[in-house]
Design goal:
The protein is α/β, with parallel strands linked by helices. It contains nine helices and nine strands.
Length: about 270
């Protein structure tokens, strides 16, 4: 008597049924690389909301607070490495099944895992941009400049917060020196989209073009509470292509999903490795 074949994971069946997956990833994809996420399983903030764009641009004390915490947080964030979720999605692309990967993360870990077709929806934290002349500088170079200007702060340590931030509480940031652009003296900002700042139109347009070519959508590690990512799920729903999501807890798109898998990203995608 032969035993019945083992049932396959519903996500594996979903992936096998589609040849041009549009993949959208969020913070949950990188938590196993040591980068904390923003929200709990209900989609609520775990901590104070990230810095606002207008406050960063108009308030020196906000820039001092941001860069002081970033000086501490970058030391570990910059050393983060891809986990099995990133490698699994890179394998999906290598197998010719991924139309495009759109990530809300700013850590570049998909690229480090070998993924080629990636759109960084919210920019990249490994670059610093001058808001005056547009000059871009590698973050590790700016880290050296920050450290040189604030040597005493290098003796501090703090627990990690999302996106290279650090939980540096009860510190007086008034003495922190933030270097200006060497070219024009302008304000330096990480090359990422802050809350209150718009995603560049060309980035959105390029992602939408790829979504139009996809035959299904896969969301990995995102609650979709931020509209900049949720809009792509709305587009997929209007096109009536199936949408699957891997996320621990509620998503903003639960009523639009054909399949939802509440597992850690690396576990749910293990069949791809």
């Amino acid at each position: 008597m032969t035993s019945a074949p083992m049932a396959r994971h519903p996500l594996e069946e979903f992936v096998d049924r589609h040849e041009r997956l549009f993949v959208l990833t969020g913070a949950g994809c990188s938590t196993n690389s040591g980068i904390p996420d923003y929200r709990d399983s209900h989609g609520n903030w775990k901590r104070t909301q990230p810095v606002n764009f207008q406050a960063f641009m108009t308030e020196e004390r906000t820039r001092q607070r941001y860069w002081a915490r970033s000086l501490i947080g970058w030391r570990r964030f910059g050393q983060a490495r891809p986990n099995d979720a990133h490698h699994a999605l890179a394998r999906l692309e290598a197998n010719g099944r991924c139309e495009m990967l759109l990530t809300q993360n700013v850590d570049r870990l998909h690229q480090s895992a070998g993924h080629r077709q990636v759109i960084d929806l919210h920019g990249r934290l490994d670059l610093v941009r001058c808001m005056g002349c547009g000059r871009k500088t590698p973050r590790y170079e700016f880290q050296d400049a920050l450290g040189s200007a604030n040597a005493v702060w290098l003796t501090l340590d703090a627990t990690d917060a999302p996106d290279g931030d650090a939980n540096l509480e009860h510190a007086d940031f008034a003495s922190f020196n933030v270097p200006a652009c060497e070219s024009c003296g302008g304000i330096l900002k990480p090359d990422v989209v802050f809350f209150g700042e718009n995603v560049p139109r060309d980035v959105v347009a390029t992602a939408q073009e790829h979504l139009e070519q996809a035959d299904a959508m896969l969301v990995v590690g995102s609650s979709l509470m931020v509209y900049s990512g949720f809009r792509f799920v709305q587009t997929a729903a209007r096109r009536q292509i199936p949408i699957a999501a891997v996320n621990l807890g509620r998503t903003r798109a639960d009523d639009l999903l054909a399949l939802k898998v509440e597992e850690r990203c690396e576990a749910a995608l293990a069949f791809l490795l």
